[in-house]
Amino acid sequence: MRWSQAFIPTLREDPADAEAPSHKLLLRAGFIRQLMAGGYSLLPLGRRVAFKIEGIIREEMNRIGAQEFSLPALHPAELWQKSGRWDVFGEELFRLHDRHGADLCLGMTHEEVFTTIAGELRSYKELPQIWYQFQTKFRDEARPKSGLLRVREFLMKDSYSLDVTEEGLDRAFQLHFEAYRRIFERCGLDAIAVEASSGAMGGSESIEFMIPSDAGEDWTASCASCGYAANTEKATSSLIPVEDSPALDAPEKFPTPGVRTIEELAHFEGGAAPERQIKTLVYLVDGEVTLVLLRGDHALVEQKLIDGTGTAQLRPAAADEVRAALGAGPGSLGAVGVAEYRVLADLALRGRTGMTTGANQDDFHLRGVDVERDIRASQWLDLRKVTEGDLCPACDAPLSVRKTIEVGHIFKLGTKYTEALRATVLDEKGEARHIIMGSYGIGIGRAVAAVVECCHDENGIIWPLSVAPYEVVVTVLNPKDVECTEVAQRVYEGLQGEGIEVLLDDRDERPGVKFKDAELVGIPYRITVGPKGLANGKLEVFRRRGGRKRDVDVQKAAGALIDNVLEERR
């Protein structure tokens, strides 16, 4: 391809509304263009990168015996209603009606549709199966942001394993785990596998593959000592012991005028340090008022509350609902003596004595609280958010907490969908058994952006050779010079003849513009053909990663670069 004929609309300045490095660079380098919030077009360079990532994924999926499908993106509501996710996904699910008034949706994922096809299987002898596809997904994100990292329409590889035993599911899960490791390594990503919540997908176990990045929206806790790693929606930690004062014979009420926060109570005369306070939050869980208790210095992870209760509907109570239930406003709330509402307590409160909490009367608190004596906890759950420096649950070394980008997620679904949609096979005894499923996803656009987040510098993108839009750019410094043009054409054709993906920059532009564009676009190798170099029988070879330059004899330049590219491909 000649640059003069290609559509590569580079920009000199960062777009004003772009914050994440990948968002800025993919726009500036001419890989993507925004159509609307959360909707992006892949331009030719962007499509080439996405196609390469798809190719790597397809190779690795085929390597584990998977078979490729192509399923509709438009689904009947009935399927999602049967699985229960029509209501669970709420406003994130794009819903519409056809001309006959039938309810439809745009698929966020394809568990229901693949399960319907799995219903055609009849015998355990037809299992195991692994099925996959590349398909557009739709999600009505409340706040799409960061370019391709959080969008409303995206291409995903989703695959599904089908088996008749839990052991079979374990094998398929491990096959995908290893395949995902290879995929991300081949894409130039150093992905970390972490424990994760299964969320609305359901199932018994899930693992996310994370890339450390300040542009990420997930937080991951990890231990450098033993390797423990988990999304903070799932992570736990060992507690540093806190010395309690003895409980009083009964909780003692005392005035706290104007005190509304944990911090204010900590500095109030006669108050208590945050770790000696009980924080009381009020939620509506499946429509029922529920008190959620944590230590004063701990934060709630709502996903842990969702997972712990198995709820489909959860929201914080409004101020009027809180007052109607407990008779006080936030800052004066507590669970002592509360019997009419469900009380969920974080495990960090278990066995604590001498604690301070709200008295359910504005401007009053209770001290000397014995948690297990004075509070009727309906359930003890791990609800708190792990923070930097907390102790690893496996080895007690300090945990590190950092922002990450999720690039892949694998789930053990079990029979959640096959029970709902009645997909069974006959086992060895002729008895009907629900098929056991796993689900495995990689977002293609997010993978493109993740590579850029990890591989860039102040001059632009630095693509790994495996996913670069072109492997080599041949830059002609003076296209009007006949010798320069002829030599560049020979090099270009020689590289093409060896299967190298090469772009010939034959534009009538200043050399500085060409060099800046090549670095911005991030092509791994550049051969520069100029009059001064040719006068000495040399061409300049430049490696984008590391910025190394070297002069090579004209006759040997193409061959040397071919050797470099082929070696790097291996």
Give the topology:
Layout: H1 21-28, E1 32-36, E2 39-42, H2 44-63, E3 67-69, E4 74-76, H3 77-83, H4 85-88, E5 95-97, E6 103-106, H5 111-118, E7 129-138, E8 153-163, H6 166-186, E9 192-195, E10 205-212, E11 218-222, E12 229-231, E13 252-255, H7 262-267, E14 278-285, E15 288-295, H8 302-309, E16 314-316, H9 319-326, E17 342-346, E18 355-358, E19 364-369, H10 371-374, E20 379-381, E21 400-414, H11 416-420, E22 424-426, E23 432-434, E24 436-443, H12 444-454, E25 456-457, E26 460-461, E27 472-476, H13 482-497, E28 502-505, H14 511-521, E29 525-529, H15 531-535, E30 538-543, E31 548-553, H16 554-569
Parallel strand pairs: 3-7, 15-17, 17-20, 27-28, 27-29
Antiparallel strand pairs: 1-2, 4-6, 5-6, 7-8, 8-24, 9-10, 10-21, 11-12, 11-21, 13-19, 14-15, 14-16, 18-19, 21-24, 22-23, 25-26, 29-30, 30-31
Helix pairs in contact: 1-12, 2-6, 2-12, 13-16
Features:
570 residues, alpha+beta, BirA Bifunctional Protein, domain 2, YbaK protein, Rossmann fold, 3 domains, nine-stranded mixed β-sheet, five-stranded mixed β-sheet, 28% helix, 29% strand, globular
Can you put this structure into words, describing what you see?
The structure is a single chain. The chain is of the alpha+beta class. The chain folds into 3 domains: 9-195 and 412-453, BirA Bifunctional Protein, domain 2; 252-381, YbaK protein; 470-569, Rossmann fold (3-Layer(aba) Sandwich), CATH 3.40.50. It is built from 16 helices and 31 strands. Strands 3, 7, 8, 9, 10, 11, 12, 21 and 24 form a 9-stranded mixed β-sheet that branches. Strands 16-14-15-17-20 form a 5-stranded mixed β-sheet, covered by helices on one side. A hairpin with a 5-residue loop joins strand 5 (95-97) and strand 6 (103-106). Helix 1 packs across helix 12 and helix 13 runs parallel beside helix 16 (554-569). The mean pLDDT is 94.
